[in-house]
Structures are given as structure tokens and as C-alpha cells.
Write a structure and sequence with these properties.
This protein is α/β, with parallel strands linked by helices. Helices cover 40% and strands 18% of the residues. It has four domains: 10-164 and 204-258, Rossmann fold (3-Layer(aba) Sandwich); 260-377, no CATH class; 383-485, Roll (Luciferase, domain 3), CATH 2.30.38.10; 487-614, ANL, C-terminal domain (GMP Synthetase, Chain A, domain 3, 2-Layer Sandwich).
């Protein structure tokens, strides 16, 4: 076995992959397929073109573009130069993007297409340091394809990659600002290098895997996934939400990294199809899910993959071993019925994903428990990951052989986790809820041009405060319990984590979206967007969300539904007050971030009147 050290930079990892898998198809979209060798050669050529137009090591380069095979080529070229990308998607308002570029003191800008040249030109006064703009697509005279053609000789990819040091700054990513003003997160080559090294080991990724890409490439989760997939020799296939169902069936991906909202959409589609089926088929499906869920739980218990806060000791250890044996017997007893349901029900569902999906990966938010349970029941256990932009992002992963429902996984290699008291910052033992702190090669350098905020986030020993609440089990599994900044404090002093309550509300087929409010109130309330499909199937009307929101009968039903769905919670966590909303939360109306997280501070500000009505 070779003892040569692992690469520590993204270009070095790609250079190593190029030596191993030069002819493998790296990128695929509706137009073309790009071998890895071609991707690396074009990236090296584009890097030389960037140098010739004046881009220098350390220069910040704005990147206002969406998911496209040309994105990774430009990204690698900037890294070979030693430049620093400042990326966002075109759904970011141009004035906001201009503000990012001004703060980053960007000298150059790459936009997605010709139309975005004009869009950003209207805000040139906000970004005075930007001197030149290029387009990613070949629909403009200043396209990167045309720039590429100006270069006739260039150093090879591997030669250029050798000059990039691990501590070199690779990118500044301005976070979406779900709770406040955006911050520029500085990530180095070493940060990304760590992720590229540890994630394939955790997920047992092979070179013949096919990844379906649907998320925006500027988002840290998708960006790291692309680095991991391509440096492993895998194929990256681009899709979008309109073509997702078709492309899953056509390309038969083995991994589909996405955010929870995508899995919610898939789940809702299945539920809608089943709801309109004849009664006998609905009954068979319900029975299949119950049996599949029970069998999956028993098999997990037999493997020791059941969530437990503390390891059993003494007599409890004997009982634990006996329970694993009983779980194995129970799973075996359900095997014939489970196999029947799998053949007549679940196999068809998995076939819709192409039939080869072994890695539904969810990151960038909390997976609702009922959806997590559903996919495991049908034979598609989700690998849930946890992390932040500031941690490059992956801190923990549920993985093959350790996919514990109710947790967000164990720490990946070299990542240290500690649970600390929110006020004293002292370390807490296993099982106690506190703030998640982390240390390791994944932690960012800091916030760009903000030493005070950096010092507040990273202590003198290199530990980063995630701002998330969680607990660690004796087995090392991390359980998410909310965000400190999302915590609602009621008038009685009770602390409430809204995300868990929202998950309960979203289990109702009548609810499309839910947000829990109640800061400084006596009780909680919920703002609900009715599900048009769910209400129609329940006989509550066939109108739009706006029409349903104005219907007193729908309001009365959803008030009862909210009470029922939260009746098992502590009294102060139960929902009895509801206000229906006529419009869904979307990135376009500003209530969601581009990665579909709720902007709670925006909701609180813009829907203040609706919140007051909920308490009227």
C-alpha cells in the first residue's frame, strides 16, 4: 500500500483524479458529455486566459451564476490562478450581489448569461472596484468560451495545481442571512481538501457512481459534493426541478444530494398519487408502509443502529443484547410479508428513481422525521448530513453501517465535537442539551473583513460556535435540537424550538408550509399555508391557497388539525392559534433563502399584522 500523503488542495485532488480516471465522463447535461481529462485541460487553459486579462493571486472574483457544467470549469480555473471566488446564484437580487462584491472588493465579475450583464451594470455604482465582466454561457462577446480561444499555449493542470498552497484562500461565501445580515465566510484550500478526503470514506463512494446535481453550485453543500464526486472519478449529471423526475428515471443515479424540501416534494408527490388511487390500493400501500417501517426498525435494532443516549451497563447490557436478538427474530418473521410488499409496491417507487439509488443525501436543513421514516420504510434510507458554511460544510454524516434515525450522524474524520453550556461555555456530558462547538481542519479562517465577528465565533483554542443546540450520545451520534437564534422565549420563560413543532404540523396532508411564532407571548401560534391538493382530497374545497385561506371552514379544520398534531407535546408547545396565509413562502417573495430555508426575521417583520391576527 502506498504511503504517499493525501492531497490537501482541491486542484491537487483533481490532478490525482486526472491521473487515475482521465477518460471517465465527469460532467453530463442535456447537450454534451465532458471527460475528466477535457475538464482539466480546459480549466488549465482558462486559468492562463484569466492571468492574461489581469486576474492575479488573491484577487476576488464575483461569480453570479447558476447550475451549469461550465461553472466547475471556471471555478477550477480561478483556483489554479490562486484567485478567490465570491459566488452567488442569479436569484440573488442584483443590489444585494453588488453589496457583496463591494464588501469583497472584487475586481472581476463572472455572470451567468448576457441578460445578467445588463442586470448588474445597473448597479455598477455600488461595486466600483469591478473593472471587467464575463459570461459563463457563450451568448455574449465577453463569454468565457471566447476568452478561452485567445490562449494557444498554457501550462498543464497538474503543473499549475502544484503551486497552490493548502492555506491559500479559495472562496468567500456570503451566507444567506436567515436570521440577520449576511457574512462573508472565508474558506481555504485546506478546508475543502479535508472534505474531499473524508466524505468518500464515510459514504463508501466508488468511481462508477452517478451523482444527480440539482442544487445551486455556489451553495457550500453542492459545491463540496461536486468536488467529492469528480475527484472520485464519478459522473456528475445536471438537472433541475422541472426535469428531476424524468432525469432520475433516465440516468439512474446512485447518489442524489439535496435539501430536505426536495425530499418533501417527492414525498408529497407519492402521497398525492396514492390518495387518488382506489380504496383497495390505498389500503395496500398503507399496510406496506407500516410493515416496511416496522421491519426497518427491527433490522436497525438488530444491527445496533437504534438511537440510544447512554450505553447500557450492568443488567441493562444483558437486556440490550436480548433485545437485539428479539429484533433480529422480529425482522425475520416479517421478512416474507416485507418481501411481498417490496415486490408489489416499493420496487415500483424505487424504479421511478432509476432503480439504483443507494444514496439519497440530505443536507442544508432538518429532515422532517415523518419523511425520514417514510423513505427508510420503502427501502431508501436517507444519509443525513449536518454542517454549516463556516465548516466547509460537513461535520457529521449518517452513513452506511451507521444510519441512526433520530440523529444527524457521527463526526467525520478529524472533526471534534463538544456540547457546551449556552452561558458558561463549560463542556456538558453525553445526553445533555447545549450548544454544538467544533474544531478541526474544516473550520473556516474567519469572516471576511470582520475580526470582531470572527473572534465572537471562534475561541482562542480554535473551537467554532455553531449556534446550534444538540446533544451527543455515548455512541457519538449527534442529535439536533434547534438553533439558539430560532429559540422562541415565551412570557413564562419557557424556551421553545420551533422546528420540531413545525415538523409535527407538516405531517398533516392539509398543510403545505408552517412557521411557529410566539416570541414574548403567553402561547405559541402557527402561520400555515394550506395544501390545495390535501384540502381537495379532504373535501374542503378545490380553490387556490388564497381561496382556502379565506374559507372559515378550512380555518376551523386546520385549527383542530394543529391541535391534534401537537397534542402529545408539552402544554406550552401545543398550537391552538392559527392564521392561514394566502401565499406560499418562496425565494422569489423573500421568505425563503435560495436553499429553501425560512428567513424567520423577514417573516416576523413582513407578516407582523398576520401574527397579530393569530392572537386576536
Amino acid at each position: 500500500m502506498s504511503s504517499s500523503p493525501l492531497p490537501r488542495t482541491v486542484p491537487a485532488w483533481f490532478a490525482a483524479a486526472g491521473r487515475r480516471h482521465p477518460e471517465r465522463i465527469a460532467l453530463q447535461d442535456a447537450e454534451t458529455e465532458v471527460p475528466l481529462a477535457t475538464l482539466l485541460d480546459e480549466s488549465a487553459r482558462l486559468a492562463e486566459a484569466f492571468r492574461q486579462v489581469g486576474i492575479e493571486p488573491g484577487d476576488r472574483v464575483g461569480f453570479y451564476a447558476d447550475n451549469d457544467r461550465r461553472w466547475i470549469r471556471a471555478d477550477l480555473a480561478l483556483q489554479l490562478v490562486g484567485a478567490v471566488s465570491v459566488p452567488r446564484g442569479t436569484d440573488t437580487p442584483p443590489e444585494e450581489m453588488a453589496g457583496f462584491l463591494a464588501h469583497a472588493e472584487a475586481r472581476f465579475l463572472i455572470v451567468h448569461a448576457a441578460c445578467h450583464v445588463e442586470r448588474m451594470a445597473g448597479h455598477a455604482h455600488q461595486m466600483p472596484t469591478v473593472t471587467r465582466t464575463f459570461t459563463l454561457l457563450p451568448d455574449h462577446d465577453a463569454s468565457l468560451d471566447r476568452l478561452l480561444e485567445t490562449v494557444t499555449t498554457w501550462p498543464g493542470f497538474e503543473e499549475q495545481a502544484a503551486s497552490i498552497e493548502p492555506e491559500r484562500l479559495a472562496t468567500v461565501i456570503y451566507t444567506s442571512g436567515t436570521t440577520g445580515r449576511p457574512k462573508g465566510v472565508m474558506l481555504t484550500q485546506a478546508n475543502f481538501g479535508h472534505q474531499v478526503a473524508c466524505c468518500p470514506r464515510a459514504l463508501a463512494i466508488r468511481p462508477d457512481e452517478r451523482f444527480l446535481s440539482i442544487l445551486p453550485p455556489w451553495h457550500i453543500f453542492e459545491r463540496t459534493v461536486e468536488y467529492v464526486a469528480l475527484t472520485c472519478g464519478c459522473r456528475l449529471i445536471y438537472t433541475d426541478r422541472r426535469r428531476l423526475k424524468e432525469d432520475m428515471a433516465r440516468h439512474a443515479p446512485t447518489f442524489l444530494p439535496s435539501v430536505p424540501r426536495i425530499w418533501e416534494t417527492v414525498y408529497d408527490g407519492i402521497r398525492k398519487a396514492v390518495s387518488s388511487a382506489p380504496p383497495v390500493r390505498r389500503a395496500i400501500f398503507a399496510a406496506a408502509v407500516r410493515v416496511g417501517g416496522a421491519r426497518a426498525n427491527l433490522r436497525a435494532g438488530a444491527r445496533g443502529e437504534r438511537l440510544r443516549i447512554h450505553r447500557p451497563r450492568g443488567p441493562a447490557l444483558v437486556l440490550s443484547g436480548a433485545r437485539r436478538g428479539l429484533d433480529a427474530l422480529g425482522a425475520a418473521a416479517l421478512a416474507p410479508l416485507g418481501a411481498l410488499f417490496d415486490r408489489i409496491v416499493f420496487r415500483k417507487l424505487r424504479a421511478a428513481t432509476g432503480g439504483h439509488l443507494r444514496g439519497p443525501i440530505s443536507g442544508g436543513g432538518l429532515m422532517p422525521p415523518h419523511i425520514d421514516r417514510f423513505f427508510r420504510a420503502i427501502g431508501l434510507p436517507v444519509y443525513v448530513g449536518y454542517g454549516l458554511t463556516e465548516t466547509s460544510p460537513v461535520l457529521t454524516l449518517r452513513r452506511p453501517g451507521r444510519n441512526v434515525l433520530g440523529s444527524i450522524g457521527r463526526a467525520v474524520d478529524e472533526v471534534e465535537l463538544e456540547i457546551r453550556h449556552p452561558e458558561t461555555r463549560t463542556a456538558l456530558p453525553a445526553g445533555e442539551i447545549g450548544v454544538v462547538w467544533t474544531r478541526g481542519p474544516q473550520v473556516m479562517r474567519g469572516y471576511y473583513r470582520d475580526e470582531a465577528m470572527t473572534a465572537a465565533a471562534i475561541d482562542g483554542d480554535g473551537w467554532f460556535d455553531t449556534g446550534d443546540l444538540g446533544l451527543l450520545t455515548d455512541d457519538g451520534d449527534l442529535c439536533f435540537r434547534g438553533r439558539i437564534k430560532e429559540t422562541i422565549v415565551l412570557k413564562g420563560g419557557e424556551n421553545v424550538e420551533p422546528s420540531a413543532i413545525e415538523s409535527c404540523l407538516l405531517e398533516s396532508p392539509l398543510v403545505e408550509q408552517a412557521v411557529v411564532v410566539g416570541q414574548d407571548r403567553k402561547t405559541l401560534a402557527a402561520l400555515l399555508v394550506p395544501s390545495a391538493d390535501g384540502c381537495k382530497l379532504a373535501g374542503l374545497g378545490k380553490g387556490s391557497a388564497a381561496e382556502l385561506a379565506a374559507d372559515p371552514a378550512v380555518l376551523a379544520k386546520l385549527q383542530r388539525e394543529a391541535g391534534d398534531r401537537t397534542s402529545h407535546l408539552r402544554p406550552f408547545e401545543r398550537i391552538t392559534r392559527v392564521r392561514l396565509l394566502p401565499e406560499a413562502f418562496t425565494p422569489e417573495n423573500g421568505f425563503l433563502t435560495p436553499t429553501l430555508k425560512m428567513r424567520r426575521h423577514v417573516i416576523a417583520e413582513r407578516l407582523a399584522a398576520e401574527i397579530e391576527e393569530a392572537y386576536a
